[in-house]
Amino acid sequence: MTKSINAYEQDYAQLMKDCPTWPSDKAAEYCSAGLWEGLTFSDMLADRAARYSEKTAVISGENRLSYAALYDQAGRLAEGFLQLGVKPTDRVVVQMTNRYEFFTVIFALFRIGALPVFALPLHRLSEIRYLCEFSEAKAYVIPDTEAGFDYRGLAAQVKEQVPTLRHVLVAGEPGAFPFLSLEKLMKQAGKRHEEPYWPSYVESGHVAFLQLSGGSTGLPKLIPRTHDDYMYSLRRSNEICGITEQSVYMAALPVAHNFPLSSPGVLGTLYAGGTVVLAPRPSPDDAFPLVAKERVSITALVPPLALVWLEAAVQRRPDLSSLQVLQVGGAKFSAEAASRVQRVLGCRLQQVYGMAEGLVNYTRLDDANDIVVNTQGRPMSDWDEIRVVDEDDAQVAPGEVGELLTRGPYTIRGYYKAEAHNAKAFTADGYYRTGDLVKVSEQGYLVVDGRVKDQINRGGDKIAAEEVENHLLAHPAVFDASLVAMPDALLGERACAFIILREGLVATGADLKAYLRGRGLSAYKIPDRFEFTDAFPQTNVGKVSKKALRESLQAQMSAPTGASQ
Length: 565
Ligand SMILES: O=C(O)c1cccc(O)c1O
Description:
Elements: H1 5-18, H2 24-32, H3 41-52, E1 56-60, E2 63-66, H4 67-84, E3 91-94, H5 101-112, E4 115-118, H6 125-135, E5 139-143, E6 145-146, E7 149-150, H7 151-161, E8 167-171, E9 180-181, H8 182-188, E10 207-212, E11 222-226, H9 227-241, E12 248-251, H10 258-262, H11 265-272, E13 275-278, H12 284-294, E14 298-301, H13 303-316, E15 325-329, H14 335-338, H15 341-345, E16 348-355, E17 358-362, H16 369-374, E18 378-379, E19 385-389, E20 402-407, H17 419-425, E21 432-440, E22 446-451, E23 455-458, E24 461-464, H18 465-473, E25 478-488, E26 492-501, H19 509-518, E27 529-532, H20 546-558
Parallel strand pairs: 1-13, 3-4, 3-5, 5-8, 8-9, 12-13, 12-14, 14-15, 15-16, 26-27
Antiparallel strand pairs: 1-2, 6-7, 10-11, 16-17, 17-18, 19-20, 20-21, 21-22, 23-24, 25-26
Helix pairs in contact: 3-4, 3-5, 4-5, 4-8, 6-7, 9-11
């Protein structure tokens, strides 16, 4: 350590300047109402390790980590990170598949006040390079390989292209790459010193990590969440979802995604002293045996996976007797599929409509079937403020469709380093513009009815149209590009790119797909279909009419003479 505590205070002051937070009167209100309890993630784990000690915290393949072991490993890794020169307020991009090191790493970073930046396992060079650059990350943490993909090769490219990135750390084997394994980092740090072995710089009001936005603009936005606000959302989610120390939560979705991370997810489960089971993949082949073996009581899926589970369960009749609750969220779940969950899987359905920016809505476990099947739930907290507005920000009549705006004790007031965007994405009085169209029932339940933001929700994977369009526009043969959603029975939506080629130049759909892959774009963002055209329909203010493009696509898809690929 080369700096005094005061120096870190300056670093925190800078960080907090980059991260808009709540006005002080609101913050005081949330504190005095006991919503923000003044607990950091590091203190939370220390407390649970003392309380639950040998109880199993995380199960991942052959590994079973007790609360004490998780705390101990996080402490040693924290020491290791400090020795590497990672210090309070530094950013560290964490791209981890569902393995236990996700927890040892993030709790190590929480401990020293460094900020994990949560990447997803499917992210590739384009996304990771951006995350590392934009957050000025000092380190990048990866698994060695997973599902046939070598993250070390990706990291080698990122390291070469991002000069501020000093360290790559690997869960598993570094192999021939010049990277340090987490295991070595932990050993290097030696045995844990007497506590506390470094002063605590971390306060509960500080930003704990940067979460990723689904986004609708060219580049993904980073979401600063504080210990206080996130912890409140976990505590309240636990109450609603019945999470206790008896709960066994299985993460089938990638654990860094906000839904399995916090609604109530793996962190809610650790908060309650329960057990987290990490499924390597969400397929019935992997997940059903785990549910039976570990007596999983609750898990979370996106709608396409829920459909796959429903189908497989009918055929295989697996032992899901321990499963009490299946949460479905991330995209709209059809009422038809929703109505089959209880009968086919033998557990209660909970619909979850949430966003990494904050607001999470749940159907309640004792809600009538009609509500559980037909709505996306209601806000988790009485402190959530919501408004449903028309294009002029005027409140719509009760029950009418409008854009959902929200603010509250766990909804951010602005993105990280995004002043210009924040002015558009938030109202002057601090409401976040969700970009989703909803209607609110008399009892306060939300039904999602579309969106105004330019995004495609591909089975829960959100694609910002502008991001993909920008990549397409970089192709020499592309004059203009417009990405729209097309309906899909399994995923809900897929992406179709409408392309106008430059005169005299040619490119096929296959060429453009290969081009996007070559630019390091993740697979889920690569358009599923390409349509070549001479001009785009326009709105009466002269913008590209995506509505007209979607309609022309619909007409073509229902026409008898198949698709042009
Ligand atoms: O981002 C989401 O889609 C989401 C869904 C359910 C719950 C959440 O917390 C989410 O962030």
